[in-house]
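Quick one:
INPUT:
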């Protein structure tokens, strides 16, 4: 089962297929699209979420890789579209405390894993209802081998095209990593037209703990 598994077999097969016929397309998918440790993590997760909310598998994979897969392995593309649609539907299912969960593919440097992302409509919160604002809040919680607990807390208001993002870590991130994340945040905003703010919290990080979801206890073996 895709949701219960720690792997996404269809996506792994797609990467292998691309490696066999067009290594540069495979590298584009692995290095530029898939969320992975490093300064692009937040931006690539946001890119995945936007594509997932719109059901846009081709837009997420990239036109080049998608065309190659459609030509060589149409059955695999159908399977990937089904998987993508299922992940999107699960993100809209109710969850305890109004939070919903979806899975995100994550390349750890050796293989593709899946990590959980929790989502709640921003309008579900009292202060947003009073202001008449509708958006989406998401929380990603991970335990990285070198950094320890790492959390992304984002608030997206699609109508206003506004995003506020908090990066929480147990210890303060190196200045260069913070600057790299800021650069990517600005670049993503220029491309999408979404503006907003980015901040970092550490020592204390003030992690958000979601009811019904245990904070990560074991490192995923991820290295950043």
């Amino acid at each position: 089962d895709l949701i219960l598994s720690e792997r996404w077999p269809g996506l792994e097969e797609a990467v292998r297929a691309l490696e066999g016929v067009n290594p540069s397309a495979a590298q584009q998918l692995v290095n530029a699209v898939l969320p992975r440790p490093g300064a692009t993590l937040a931006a690539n997760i946001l890119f995945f979420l936007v594509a997932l909310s719109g059901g846009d598998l081709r837009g997420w994979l990239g036109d080049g890789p998608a065309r190659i897969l459609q030509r060589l392995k149409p059955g695999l593309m159908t399977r990937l579209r089904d998987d993508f649609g299922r992940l999107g539907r699960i993100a809209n299912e109710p969850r305890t405390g109004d939070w919903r969960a979806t899975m995100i593919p994550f390349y750890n440097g050796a293989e593709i894993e899946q990590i959980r992302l929790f989502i709640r409509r921003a309008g579900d919160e009292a202060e947003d209802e009073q202001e008449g604002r509708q958006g989406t809040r998401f929380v990603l919680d991970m335990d990285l081998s070198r950094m320890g607990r790492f959390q992304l807390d984002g608030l997206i208001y699609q109508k206003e095209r506004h995003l506020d993002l908090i990066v929480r870590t147990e210890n303060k991130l190196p200045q260069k990593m913070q600057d790299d994340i800021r650069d990517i945040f600005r670049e993503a905003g220029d491309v999408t037209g979404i503006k907003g703010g980015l901040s970092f919290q550490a020592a204390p990080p003030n992690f958000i703990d979601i009811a019904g979801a245990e904070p990560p206890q074991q490192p995923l073996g991820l290295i950043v």
